[in-house]
Amino acid sequence: MKKAQIVIGLGFGDEGKGITTDFLAQQNPESVVIRFSGGQQAAHTVMIEDKKHIHSSFASGALRGLPSYFTEHCTIHPVFLLNERKELIEKNGNIELHIHPLAKVTTPFDVWQNRTNAKNLEHGTCGKGVGATMKRHESPYKLFAADLIAPREMLIEKLKGIAYYYGFMDDDQLEETLHIFLNAVDQIDWKIDDYTYLNSFENLIFEGSQGILLDMDHGVFPNVTYANTTSKNAYGICRLLKIEDIEMYYVTRIYSTRHGNGWMSNEKELMLKNNEEETCVFNDYQKELRFGDLDYDLLNYALLLDGAYVAATKKNLIVTCLDQTDEQFKTENLKVKFDTVYGSYSPFSKDFKQIF
């Protein structure tokens, strides 16, 4: 009987979804890891002994040797993907990546738009073109994963149309940009497969992106992501594949974080320890990583929302970064009943400990 394990962040992202996914990959080495939201803006960090990798264009089972699958709800950028692929090869990770034909393709023109548009910069952006890609797909100027293996002349015309859509009109720069993009496309052995590919696995690990509080339907607009970060997409795929055994892994740090602009409760400066391996540091687009005390009311809110989207047979809670502050996690403040509560005492723990 097929089983699905779904990893969801309960905050604004940066909760520890990568190490939770790696934890499940270690327990279930014959699985496939499925990304069902977001894309190349993810920064899911996994450390195995002396090897460390930040997963963006591959799912967080890749360093441990599991194949990745990106659904139609995700974005991919061939240049970013190629660069990460080279890194994984050097670390002996698994570069097997299957992509749904309708996954959305980010182009250099989307990245340019994300990084130069004043409104994007005001609201906050990762600078990886994901938001621009999703917005562009509401127009006629679409580009899907299937287009990457279409006749080259057709692909070029679609790319030129996207450049025109954004007003990217410098002919010399256009040709150079197209050359770099197409060169990356040519170096990748594209595996474009629909959901029937997943039928060959008995265990599916669904890896979420960002967190429920950034969901496009439930976050505080306009500082939201252009994606459903709840279990909505993952559960839809489970129903399509007729999977009824669904186990949830909800993830939060022992404190709150938010990267970029927007509302945040309980925000304050925290004195943290053992956080030398923090991945989410300052960048020109998201700015500083912000901190605050854990808000149990928001945790309950996020759990209530996600419960409206998925019917789970078992619910687990993962609490990460327990050794970075003296604060204690208070399970009695949660209204949702969990089967197990796990704790991680390091950003990249190999094993989780029960803290019930």
Automatic annotation (TrEMBL):
Binding residues for Mg(2+), per the UniProt record? 14
Superkingdom of this protein's organism:
Bacteria
Q: Its Enzyme Commission number? A: 6.3.4.4
Question: According to its UniProt record, in which pathway does this protein act?
Answer: Purine metabolism; AMP biosynthesis via de novo pathway; AMP from IMP: step 1/2
Care to name a GO molecular-function term for this sequence? adenylosuccinate synthase activity
Q: Known InterPro entries for this protein?
A: Adenylosuccin_syn_GTP-bd (IPR018220), Adenylosuccinate_synth_dom1 (IPR042109), Adenylosuccinate_synth_dom2 (IPR042110), Adenylosuccinate_synthetase (IPR001114), P-loop_NTPase (IPR027417)
Q: Name one GO biological process term.
A: IMP metabolic process
| Amino acids binding GTP | 13-19, 321-323
How and how many cofactors are bound, per the record note?
Binds 1 Mg(2+) ion per subunit.
Pfam families membership: Adenylsucc_synt
**Subunit details:** Homodimer.
What the protein does? Plays an important role in the de novo pathway of purine nucleotide biosynthesis. Catalyzes the first committed step in the biosynthesis of AMP from IMP.
PANTHER family of this UniProt entry?
Answer: ADENYLOSUCCINATE SYNTHETASE
Q: What is this protein called?
A: Adenylosuccinate synthetase
What organism does this protein naturally occur in?
A: Chryseobacterium luteum
